[in-house]
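Bug #77: duplicate submission created two jobs. Keeping one. Sequence:
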Amino acid sequence: MSTTAGRASADRLARLLNLVPYLLARPGIAVSEAAADLGVTERQLREDLELLWVCGLPGYGPGDLIDMAFDGDRVTITYDAGIDRPLRLTPDEALALVVALRMLAEMPGVGGRDAVERALAKIENAAGDLAGAPVAVRLPGDDARLAEIRAAVERGRALRLTYYTAARDETTERVVDPMRVLMVAGRGYLEAWCRRVEAVRLFRVDRIDAFTELAEPAAPPAAARPHDVSAGVFRPTDDLPLVTVRLGRSSRWVTEYYPCEEVRRGAGDDWVATLRVADLGWAQRFLLSLGPDVTVLGPPELVDRIRAQAAMALDAYATPAG
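Kept job's structure:
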């Protein structure tokens, strides 16, 4: 996509996000008057309205789509799909977005970096003094570490890693026989035979806290085979725990970011999704972070663990500070 086309798409998205609340506040407004207010041609506004008419959440049921009624040359929004006010970020939200974009801009291998930088510049400009807060985002070790690990792989040496495993929230030490370095979705990975688990593993470079190149040569066994990462790093298998959750409207994005085995409509606006997870401990932390918009339905072990942790949190809030 060219720079000009990318900018036009970004401008149109911003216009569409503000168009629904604008029309809600002016039911029955003439298309010509609205176009003049918004600084676009009548043809462009009609094209925007046609696009809005087919916008909705995955599944695209009639209760998810934006709806409108025309009376001659006048338009009225009859269903807003929850987009009932222009987007306004709180100071905390703006700062969080700035930090996230700065981190994304620093990440090696990210595609569309110019689009990230343009978005960051716009938000920093809108945030004003807040964007100048003393928050520095850098990933100083990633590029250098990626190069160092790649060099170690090329030299054919075994490595001793200090590695953080997010799924279990623990740091371990292990000796590995490197096989290759690869990039998947903008992240660097070391693929190696792990002597601790006697299997091929992918280690995210940004989670390698430290490593030492050993004198002995890397010697992955003949049975070691590289992973097929064409569809991503995580490959659900039948032996992994199956988690079932009920998702409210604001949490439906989970079904787009995580591979689900089934997604079906529940009561009202709820969706019920089932997905495989590598570790119930990770699932517990992730689902608790989503708040009350998500209800865990299974497995029973995960339900009990989340209920127990939630009870502990409530007890902590109920206990007066000493």
